[in-house]
Amino acid sequence: MINFDFDYYRPSKIEDAYNLMNKLANDGLKAVYYSGGTELITSFRKGTVKADAVIDIKNIEGMTIINNKSIEVTIGSCASLNKVIETFKDTILSEVLVTIADHTARNAITIGGNILGKLTYKEALLPLLALKASVLVYTKEGIKEITLEQVFDKRIKLDKADILFQIKFNKNNMSTYHTKRYTESTEVDYPILHIVSTKIETGYFIGLSGYSNFPIYQNFELKETIEEDIYNYFEEFAKEDIRSSKDYRRHLLKTVLKDMEMGLEGFND
């Protein structure tokens, strides 16, 4: 149960949503954007987040679109995880997204909500970074296209009123990949370690979620010591929490790197 009142708005144009957010802020009111709402509603019910207004952006044209008909893919930020999974079956994107929550929850969780939410895991970021995705963001200057890497620093950094509109990537960036996810208990639990790796021209892209207080990634040159190089780079980021110790996370990372058996032709397992 939500124990406070708020105003609800559902604009049909992205510029109206942006202007409304600014107007409410100028009036001294706290407003939030609403897409999937799973994390937001939970926070409302727990009382950890309160707002004077909710701006539902799902009705804006282009926010739920998935265009997979050409080499350049476009995904609206309000597209549900299940819709993305169904569209990109047997790819790095579906392989990662299908591990987030359960099927019912994924009908509501949006890809934009996952990467923008307050939860530290943001697992959808890993394949998007591996795919060298860019994002279309509505700002005071209109819609701008920026690489995801440019706006990501521990979290996606946008101004308060900015709206994540769409995500784009090139299908040619899809390559040989490997993923492995460890949890404390059930498969739908948050990850202790989720590793996503893809073969790139010079070596490997490695991304981790659950291992640190934020998703982390790096590109590594293919050479004899690559497994050692990867472990040494990520070792210091290991976190300690109620789900796992630092040492156990490091142990899992060592184990999965050994199992991946990297080689010039890709993964050998």
Automatic annotation (TrEMBL):
Gene3D superfamilies: 3.30.465.10, Uridine Diphospho-n-acetylenolpyruvylglucosamine Reductase, domain 2
Keywords: FAD, Flavoprotein, Oxidoreductase
Residues annotated as domain FAD-binding PCMH-type: 1-174
Taxonomy, superkingdom: Bacteria
InterPro entries: Diverse_Substr_Oxidored, FAD-bd_PCMH, FAD-bd_PCMH-like_sf, FAD-bd_PCMH_sub1, FAD-bd_PCMH_sub2, Mopterin_DH_FAD-bd
Pfam families: FAD_binding_5
Molecular function (Gene Ontology), one example: oxidoreductase activity
PROSITE patterns: FAD_PCMH
Signal sequence coordinates: none
PANTHER family: XANTHINE DEHYDROGENASE SUBUNIT C-RELATED (PTHR42659:SF2)
Protein name: FAD binding domain-containing protein
